[in-house]
Automatic annotation (TrEMBL):
Its main location: membrane. It comes from the Bacteria. This is NCS2 family permease. The chain crosses the membrane at residues 31-48, 60-81, 112-131, 143-167, 173-197, 204-223, 255-277, 298-318, 330-351, 358-377, 397-415, 427-446.
Length: 447
């Protein structure tokens, strides 16, 4: 049997598992998409240990837990749901864990991890009984479109900030960054490379742009060459199972408030991200996301595994949009991403060349692609337009996907009722209004 026959058999096997021809995609395109997704989100391998390390956790163990939970999440998403969506520990949850729970509330990281473990169990049960699926199906089409566009603007803002084009400003909150900073020009270079390639409709534009920007950074010395190539993954021992051994701490009522917040934030972060990515990939059918139950179960099980190993809740990653933008349509994209996370455990020093300035152009360009969802919102009907608008601007302006969703969900039922369209509002939307009021109160945003 020659090599071409082997390649053909391999492609046929992958086609049967991931239905590539049905989704009008190829192995090459999915591999490129998975690579691009990994490159866009590889930063979490270093950011997560840094944030959780501030809570007193062992950074080496957190690095390994981050990689393993991402591998588990991506594999589950690939084989359970067949979606081109990657999963890894979420940035919002780890920041809340460290700065709000451990440092502000004075709860030890061991007890806080017990809260994460309990929230993960509840999360899995909600997915198992299809409660999450029912909730997501009840969200109006216009709000789903607004979520997609809002996430697009949010990640573009993250890219602009990471690339140094937008910075903090005391008088106006945000302002333009200094163009005298050399690394900022890496971002500008990457934006133009990707934009020109996109305009010329060249496949893999985003990935090519990332590679070109990295090479420029290395050649000019703006990105340092790694000091070593191979490094064994650190031990999980300092964090493994700590949440389980500290379950007795759940007798404290304060811990249940922590669990509630983890549960709600993780629920709507992932729901909003899944909907936005599905909208971008053209997966949505009749305002519903096929196999969403399996996707949510993949997310829940990876969160449970992560809590055991020693990391904060996992979530569907908005950076998956970079892979989707260049053609990722099936679970093969997520599988390739998982493989790269596995390799990253051995070659972690090489990941240091993928700086914020390298990934920033990809996020900005993807924001352009995702914001196109705005065109299908019913802007001529104010009772729909206002909640959609608040959802869109709420995400980047509060730097939080959940808050943007909250703004939309708090106003939609009320304005629809005022417009005489109360019967069109699903009762679940009223329940969600109450849930978000409780969440904002617990977070001390409401008096």
């Amino acid at each position: 049997m020659d090599e071409s026959t082997n390649n053909s058999n391999g492609s046929n096997w992958l086609n049967r598992i991931f239905h590539l021809s049905e989704q009008q995609t190829t192995v090459k395109r999915e591999a490129l998409a998975g690579t691009t997704t990994f490159v866009s989100m590889a930063y979490i391998l270093f950011v997560n240990p840094s944030i959780l390390g501030a809570a007193g956790m062992n950074k080496g163990a957190v690095f390994t837990a981050t990689a393993l939970s991402a591998i588990i999440g991506c594999l589950l998403m690939a084989f359970l749901a067949n979606y081109p969506i990657a999963i890894a520990p979420g940035l919002g949850d780890n920041a809340f864990f460290t700065y709000s729970v451990v440092l502000a509330m004075g709860i030890s990281w061991q007890k806080a991890m017990a809260g994460v473990f309990v929230a993960a169990i509840l999360f899995t049960l909600l997915s198992l009984f299809k409660i999450r699926e029912i909730v997501i199906d009840a969200i109006p089409h216009d709000l789903k479109l607004a979520m997609a566009a809002g996430i697009g603007i949010f990640i573009a803002f993250v890219g602009l900030q990471g690339g140094g084009l937008v910075v903090a400003n005391k008088s106006s909150l945000v302002g333009i960054g200094s163009l005298t900073v050399p690394t900022t020009w890496l971002t500008i270079f990457g934006i133009f490379v990707i934009a020109i390639l996109m305009a010329k409709k060249i496949p893999g534009s985003i990935f090519i742009g990332i590679i070109a920007t990295t090479i420029l950074g290395l050649v000019t010395g703006l990105i340092k060459m790694p000091t070593q190539i191979i490094s064994l993954a650190p031990s999980l021992k300092p964090t493994f199972g700590v949440g389980i051994t500290h379950l007795p701490s759940m007798a404290d009522p304060q811990m249940w408030a922590v669990v509630l917040i983890f549960l709600l934030v993780a629920f709507f972060d992932t729901a909003g991200t899944l909907i936005g990515l599905a909208q971008q990939a053209g997966i949505m059918k009749n305002n519903k996301m096929p196999r969403i139950g399996r996707a949510l179960m993949a997310d829940s099980l990876s969160m449970l595994a992560g809590s055991v190993m020693g990391t904060t809740p996992t979530a569907a990653y908005v950076e998956s949009s970079a892979g989707i933008a260049i053609g990722g349509r099936t679970g093969l994209t997520a599988l390739v991403t998982a493989i790269f996370f596995a390799f990253s455990m051995l070659f972690s020093p090489l990941l240091t060349v993928v700086t914020d300035q390298v990934t920033a152009p990809a996020l900005i360009i993807v924001g352009v692609l995702m914001v196109s969802a705005l065109r299908d919102i019913q802007w001529d009907k104010f009772e729909v337009a206002a909640p959609a608008f608040l959802t869109v601007i709420g995400m980047p302006l509060t730097y939080n996907i959940s808050y943007g969703i909250a703004f939309g969900f708090l106003t939609y039922p009320i304005l629809m009722t005022a417009a005489g369209r109360r019967k069109e509002v699903n009762y679940i939307m009223w329940l969600l209004l109450v849930v978000f009021v409780i969440l904002l109160y617990v977070l001390n945003i409401l008096p």
